Write a sequence for this structure.
């Protein structure tokens, strides 16, 4: 696949299609009494979330409003990283077919990484012919044009490009879901070809955005009042390496920090082979950069790492993780771990547990190996028995849960600054936020409705005001995956 820069003229042309679609919907309403609505369901990573925000931006330009329950346009943005994400989508499509039966003019769109997998695309064509529009993750900038032709001509459209398109994000409309955090991709794609991973095949080769355009976009987001930015990429540490003479990721991160545009600067994901001492130094000297490093190690065995084509050894990983611990002692480290990769022996697994004990990860995303079509590991024949995998996974979870709980217990009693994210999904009287070290804090506000300025009172009518505000919270009770706290003051 080749890298293609999408021009501003092309993106302006897509905006013109938004106007045309709006006119079309005004002339031919889906129902007699209202303008069409849309809903987007996102599967997978934060880059998918960012893509969905752009497509929502397009829908808003068309004049559509969001409707989660009975949308006229339903867009499903898919993930191909793990098999269960695919099965969840295909399982849900039956329900969506029923919705379309109730509303025959409903348009169902399926896009994202799964559509770059030939087996998934063929399955969709063969068994789910009620889907109206299909495209890949590189094609989202052409959504208005494709949707216009679908609506005006009535033909189903499948358009999955082979090109690695790179439209600049600040030329795309974006409807951001969060008031406090802006998701900002700095690069797309991956060149690593880990033997278990489909990302290089679905997202394409690494493509860094222009440094000056990123800086300009971030400055604008700061002026709009965002307190936090999340820099995104399949491997942010590779930023700039495909642009001769461009600053690399540590320089970009430092530039953002010294301009003091944001209270917090987060980023993910880092690849261990590309994390440098220079990056850790930038993190250490700039307090606005999160005190958290997501560093996926996948396996503690050099033999397994080699078969995974990870490009580093356990010794190199340990050096990086322990250097971070030494330079940023208040920081946290999270990781990804795969259990049951083909050929994994008990000795290999014990080395994974040993590395976990040495680093003591504060949190971890743990996975059972999932065979992905088209990857090198798909052809590996030395599969680990399901019973063995189950036993190992249980042992690994027990160890990691213990480490996570001890990590949270170590900060009990502290008064921490958190950025409020909103109301807890499970308890409407509890608010949620994160510390700079990425600890999840669920906290209460005293019953007398703590005054902000001597007169302001927290009520259900203005509770949305809290989102994006900073507060000092006393940490009072540790759980495995979160900490309970009590608000003491707003900042």
């Amino acid at each position: 696949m080749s890298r293609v820069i999408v021009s501003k003229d092309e993106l302006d042309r897509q905006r013109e299609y938004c106007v045309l679609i709006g006119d079309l919907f005004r002339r031919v309403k889906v129902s007699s009494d209202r303008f069409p609505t849309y809903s987007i369901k996102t599967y997978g990573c934060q880059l998918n979330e960012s893509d969905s925000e752009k497509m929502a931006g397009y829908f808003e330009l068309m004049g559509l409003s969001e409707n989660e329950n009975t949308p006229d346009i339903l867009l499903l943005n898919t993930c191909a990283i793990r098999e269960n994400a695919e099965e969840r989508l295909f399982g849900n499509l039956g329900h969506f077919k029923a919705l379309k039966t109730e509303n025959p003019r409903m348009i169902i769109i399926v896009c994202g990484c799964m559509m770059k997998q030939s087996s998934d695309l063929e399955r969709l064509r063969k068994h789910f012919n009620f889907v109206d529009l299909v495209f890949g993750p590189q094609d989202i900038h052409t959504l208005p044009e494709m949707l216009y032709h679908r609506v005006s001509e009535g033909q189903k459209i499948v358009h999955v490009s082979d090109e690695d398109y790179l439209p600049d994000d600040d030329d795309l409309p974006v409807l951001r879901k969060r008031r406090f955090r802006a998701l900002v991709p700095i690069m797309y794609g991956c060149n690593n070809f880990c033997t278990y991973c489909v990302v290089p095949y679905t997202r394409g080769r690494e493509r860094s955005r222009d440094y000056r355009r990123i800086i300009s976009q971030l400055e604008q987001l700061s002026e709009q009042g965002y307190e936090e930015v999340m820099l995104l990429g399949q491997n942010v540490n590779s930023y700039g390496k495909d642009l001769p003479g461009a600053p690399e990721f540590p320089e970009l991160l430092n530039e953002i920090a010294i301009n003091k545009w944001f209270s917090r600067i987060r980023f993910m994901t880092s690849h261990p082979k590309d994390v440098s001492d220079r990056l850790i130094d930038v993190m250490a000297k700039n307090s606005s950069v999160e005190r958290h490093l997501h560093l996926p190690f996948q396996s503690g065995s050099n033999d397994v790492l080699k078969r995974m084509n990870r490009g580093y050894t356990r010794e190199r990983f340990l050096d990086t993780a322990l250097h971070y611990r030494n330079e940023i002692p208040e920081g946290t480290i999270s990781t990804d771990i795969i259990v049951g990769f083909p050929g994994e022996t008990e000795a290999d697994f014990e080395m994974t547990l040993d590395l976990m004990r040495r680093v003591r990860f504060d949190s971890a995303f743990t996975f059972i190996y999932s065979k992905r079509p088209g990857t090198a590991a798909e052809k590996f024949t030395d599969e680990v028995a399901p019973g063995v995998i189950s036993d190992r996974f249980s042992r690994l979870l027990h160890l990691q849960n213990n480490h996570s709980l001890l990590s949270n217990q170590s900060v009990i009693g502290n008064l921490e600054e958190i950025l409020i994210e909103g109301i807890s999904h499970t308890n409407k009287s509890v608010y949620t936020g994160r510390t700079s070290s990425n600890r999840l804090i669920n906290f209460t506000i005293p019953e007398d409705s703590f005054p902000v300025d001597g007169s302001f009172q927290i009520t259900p009518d203005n509770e949305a005001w809290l989102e994006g505000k900073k507060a000092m919270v006393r940490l009072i009770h540790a759980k495995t995956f979160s900490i309970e706290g009590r608000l003491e003051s707003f900042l």
The chain has a mean pLDDT of 93. The first helix runs from residue 8 to 27. The radius of gyration is 23 Å.
